[in-house]
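[#protein-structures] MJ: dropping Leucine-binding protein domain-containing protein here for a structure pass
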Amino acid sequence: MNHVLTRAALAAALTIAASGAHADDKLKVGFMLPYSGTFAALGNAIENGFKLYVAEQGGKLGGREIEYFKVDDESNPAKAAENANRLIKRDQVDVLIGTVHSGVAMALAKAAKDADTTLIVTNAGANAITGPLCGPGIFRTSFTNWQPAYAMGPVAYAKGHKTAVTITWKYAAGDEAIGGFKEGFEKAGGKVVRELSLPFPNVEFQSLLTEIAALKPDMVFTFFAGGGAVKFVQDYHAAGLDKTIPLYGSGFLTDGTLQAQGASAQGLLTTLHYADGLNTPRDNAFRADYSKAYKMQPDVYAVQGYDAAQLMQSGLTAVKGDFSKKEAFRSAMRTATVDSPRGSFTLSKAGNPVQDIYLRRVDGLENKVVEVAVQKLADPARGCKL
Ligand code: BEZ
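AK: finished. structure tokens for Leucine-binding protein domain-containing protein:
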């Protein structure tokens, strides 16, 4: 890992002294992430990715040292507003980084907007965050739930599937992923014949799998992630359904989960904004650094955290580390090109990545890239007034 200060970071450090800001003010970054429950591994990967980029810049962003604050949001929407306000009001963080669960993230976005605190969403795909809830201080380095799911629609139809059953958790991420797939699949000529769901984070899939077997669709499309995705893929395989009804999903189904899913996941096709085997110099360097630092391979969540730190670096470099220039900081972030391991991306006006969505196939412990399913896919940002 490169701990030497980059030229940009060094220049920023020198110019802070000449600006109105106090050169020794630390930048306060608040992580609101799940560190327990079904999404705990996802929260940890996001934090790891963020801190890796900071370490690569010599431990600073825009020449500023960073003070971290952390809250475990437990993926619990009922506690979300209170947790967000711990970071905003008690700790008075400058930037919020989080979270994973869409329901929690919507409350976080509302609290951030009310307090005019800059928020970078590092996973949760809730369409509303860069839709009706969009704002000048709201950014995302991940995706909308619509994006990867929509991309699977035409891919699945082109494979000859005419009917699909969907299955997911009943909450914003599940509903919106199914909505995205349905839009893409039915536009291509297919038909979603039944939408099945169970409450988040339940994993009692048996009766729903029996229903799928009776319905006999051409295919199943699903959104599950984390521990729930592990159990669903194992149960689908154990029921023997994968022999007759192919399973597809947004790529969260198999990202960061393959070690636990083992044989049950082999051959699965998913769509996502990251893949294994991209084999670009940028991704290879990131993967080498990440595995050296954390003794494990990175996944999509690590990339999203890493890119949040990169996005902040763009904003802070533009204001020469003077974080009090909030508007200039934000507008530099909005117009940045992020040199992401996934491939470089820009943000839409609403603040969401405009990015390639990859088709991937599970092979051993990798989600190997097959092709780009949709190039530079922008979320429609329905309801955003920016
Ligand atoms: C969500 O709630 O938005 C979400 C959670 C895990 C993976 C992807 C999306």
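MJ: nice. The pocket of benzoic acid is lined by residues 39, 100-102, 123-126, 145, 173, 225, 252 (CB under 6 Å).
AK: one more thing. Residues 144-270 form a domain with the Rossmann fold fold (CATH 3.40.50.2300).
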